Amino acid sequence: MWTEGIIAVDWGTTNRRAYRLDAEGVLQAELKDDQGITSVPAGGFPAAIANVRERLGDLPLLMAGMIGSNRGWVEAPYVACPAGLPELSAHLSRIERERAAIVPGLSYLDDSRADVMRGEEVQLFGAVAAGLTAPDSLVCHPGTHNKWARLEGGRVTSFRTVMTGELFSLLSKHSILSQWLHTSVTVGEAFRAGVRKGMEGRALTTELFSIRASVLLGRREAHEAASFASGLLIGADVRTGLGDADPAAEVVIMGRPELTRLYVAALDEAGRSAREVDGERAFLAGIQALVKEIA
Amino acid sequence: MWTEGIIAVDWGTTNRRAYRLDAEGVLQAELKDDQGITSVPAGGFPAAIANVRERLGDLPLLMAGMIGSNRGWVEAPYVACPAGLPELSAHLSRIERERAAIVPGLSYLDDSRADVMRGEEVQLFGAVAAGLTAPDSLVCHPGTHNKWARLEGGRVTSFRTVMTGELFSLLSKHSILSQWLHTSVTVGEAFRAGVRKGMEGRALTTELFSIRASVLLGRREAHEAASFASGLLIGADVRTGLGDADPAAEVVIMGRPELTRLYVAALDEAGRSAREVDGERAFLAGIQALVKEIA
Q: Which residues form a coiled coil (chains A, B) (predicted)?
């Protein structure tokens, strides 16, 4: 199925990125647009896929992300942790008539909580396969729903989602703080002060309101509020993600550079160094590793 | 100014409630509608007030709430805590030509945080004046922005806002959880389990996402998600509000009964008993106490 090369698609809720790779896994062409799964009408996936092939070539498709969710094209059931690349490749959801396959997401369950991911797993295994991440490490993947994944022997043994990106977006679009949250977030003293406050572990619902009061009472400049709020949410996120992690474990921040730099700064405030890995590079490495595993 | 009776208005962001009281403070008539300050166009307050007088009588007006904010009619500067009824009455913002006055809000500042309230202060002092609340107590006032106020000798010495109501509203209208948050919230095992989880003090951003994963993985019924989420936010709220409070202090929950009952249940889960006070009754008592103070 893969001998002629493939098109790999990272198909999320609001965006999609597709890459044509030749039989050696070398990137030949790509497209990025805002045709996430929520923009595809009911029954519209065959047409959406035909459009990808028109633009990138008539090749087999290997897809990951929300395309495999209950709101996507074909639901690809989650694979339970602990899981590695072999479990992932053994549970592809194949759509033979379309020469397409969807990578399953991962699930995590213990006595006290449940968690799911879709799309990040390809990047996690790709980063290990490409030597960008140690097989034993703690990986943070910021985004709408940030994932903290524990890797052991190259397998994901557990992970935790923190919806930092979604909450910041809700607050800036719809909340009583929205007028102040459209300024761009910069890593300066306000951001760092927010991180320190967030790491104290008090409820975000009270710390967020205090931002409003601080501006009204002249304690904080309005133009600093966005950076402080971002720092606050990321500080609480980092406190949660580090949790009971081994203090010596390598922490890797993987994803889009405009987000990873914020988390690196927050970890620095927590006294931890972290390595940045580009999420797109890890995704392509993960697809190549999956293709090898299947072949 | 007050000898003929008055109209008292609790004028909030999205609603207003107005009451005609006779010279003895007895309630004669009232109106409640959705003409909160955000529904009044620029320059529209004189007309909005004329409308209140048309419906309730041509009497002096004493108003509290967001009407005194920078988005209201006339900004009534905050009075700093500690503050009691005398400070409030000494700092009314009078609009003589309109025979109207606006009650100031309260502010709180210490080295680590800032806070503000508008409207709840009338209820707090009213509850004490009417003997509904002990002069030394911890009062919780649930709403869009829940207030935890510490009363000492009948004065507010400090308070803290927790934006539980606003966050629940944002989540049910706009978030990835919204499909499950329109069910009505009931005090049952799901609510109580949410309270216990919220009281553990982990970041709400991670516990909220776990609700989604729990439903997707069959760990929790979709119809329980709203009650669990409400319990989670209120549990985190109660943990914050009790904070370093004297374990023997009386806790009073004041406000609308549909909200106070949730907080009473959450406090019960925390091993604390609490007394419910009707917020409207406290507001009217506060207005009467203010009128006496001014006379």
A: none
